[in-house]
Recover the amino acids of this structure.
């Protein structure tokens, strides 16, 4: 058994799925929860995801081996303030935030030299659903979890966090904070913004009637992520602003390239570009 | 049985799936094929999708009750030229093109007053795969087929085409040509362009290494359509140029709106916009 007790701050899709997986694999004796919604926490107990919860952060974190932050990014700073008084020398702090630069910066300011016990993480898994009812123990199986260990981290604490995710079936890779944020802006944050913009654009076409009813599977696949948690994604966009804005501009220039090929009736150019893209996309399988 | 013989011009995903469905439901005695690739046509015979094929359009179309054009749009004009000499008074011509305005315009020019026998159609179904091997008889089940009947069409010929698609499990709706092209630009053509641009953008990030390996399910869902047939999509972009370019600009303004909210750190505005989009997207189910 990896842990005697862990504390999950934010018992939703991400936190709840970790709890379920650890429990199913018998890797943790007790799981305590903390969150904004008593209704959600009651559900989490009823579903057997956590053992108990409290409004008192001390009670939740006390005696825990590990605390996971799995709430929207903007809540990390106030939550770290609340956790800080209860950080003993053994407690490992980790998180599941989709951006790492601003998280690490805030953590350094708030918890000071206890930053050595903070191992930043990001499971590349999720669905467009939110809340503990959406959680399931297989969420991390065959998925990637990125850790961005800090120079101050103790290797054995990084190893504990790795082992925890691996016990849930995930593959763990370690990346640099900056590289993580740049790459995830491209593969995750930008695509979400594009999907949100697409649905927003089509919603505005009222004069054309309900255009959505003529959409097919491709459109539904493409816009599924536009049903993701709005607060979480608003926080991600702002936290990773620097890289995301660069990527939106970069994307726009690629869209302009296609537009130019259409404007100039360059069928050969379009066909070549689409072929190149198809090859790239097919190699992802 | 609806037809004694039909001719399928382009025995790929779309044409092949129609042939399979008609055959499975015993709605057609003989199916003849025509196409560029002898290899694909031989496969179509081996798979039992068509009965025969020929390089001679006369042999393929002769005695047919209906001919379906299911090739990339740019080939429609030369193919209609070839079909024209064999159009007797009973033959119904239909197509599966994703754009209708330029198709109808070309058909009017080429086949003259036989336009009354041309019933334009567009099945809203497909996958990112191409070729007869990708075809399957269930493709149209519970999918929409849009017909854009012309003022000259005989009602009974429109009805025959409707009944054909309905026999494959599709729901048929009739729309105006212009409205079809505007709506499909929004729900299908624009999304394909956006997905192509996204994969193209990420491919260009060589200095960052292979960013694709950090992509998750959402990205794969979103870019699946970027593996679609390049020639077909090049043709669609050019054929529906007028509406598509307007929509790319309209989309860009919605993307700019999100960008502006990020630039101004307007978390509340982002969260509101994403919530509105989520509600819209969830109502699509």
């Amino acid at each position: 058994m990896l842990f005697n007790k862990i504390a999950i701050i934010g018992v939703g899709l991400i936190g709840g799925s970790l709890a379920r997986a650890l429990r199913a694999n018998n890797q943790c004796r007790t799981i305590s929860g903390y969150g904004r919604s008593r209704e959600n926490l009651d559900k989490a107990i009823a579903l057997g995801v956590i053992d108990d919860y409290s409004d008192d952060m001390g009670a939740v974190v006390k005696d825990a081996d590990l605390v996971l932050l799995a709430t929207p990014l903007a809540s990390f700073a106030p939550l770290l303030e609340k956790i800080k008084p209860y950080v003993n020398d053994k407690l490992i702090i980790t998180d599941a935030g989709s951006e790492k630069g601003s998280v690490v910066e805030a953590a350094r300011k708030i918890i000071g030299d206890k930053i050595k016990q903070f191992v930043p993480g990001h499971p590349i898994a999720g669905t467009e659903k939110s809340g503990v009812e959406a959680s399931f123990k297989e969420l991390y199986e065959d998925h990637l979890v990125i850790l961005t260990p800090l120079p101050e981290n103790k290797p054995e604490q990084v190893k504990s966090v790795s082992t925890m995710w691996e016990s849930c079936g995930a593959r763990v890779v370690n990346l640099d904070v900056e590289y993580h944020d740049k790459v995830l802006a491209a593969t995750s944050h930008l695509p979400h913004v594009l999907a949100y913009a697409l649905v927003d654009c089509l919603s505005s076409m009222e004069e054309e009637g309900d255009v959505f009813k003529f959409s097919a599977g491709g459109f539904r696949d493409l816009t599924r992520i536009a049903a993701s948690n709005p607060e979480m994604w608003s926080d991600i966009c702002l936290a990773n602003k620097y890289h995301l804005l660069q990527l939106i501009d970069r994307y726009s220039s690629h869209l302009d390239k296609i537009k130019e090929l259409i404007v100039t009736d360059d069928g050969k150019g379009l066909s070549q570009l689409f072929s190149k893209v198809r090859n790239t996309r097919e190699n992802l399988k």
Notes: Chain B touches chain A through 90 residues (CB under 8 Å). Chain B has eleven helices and nine strands.
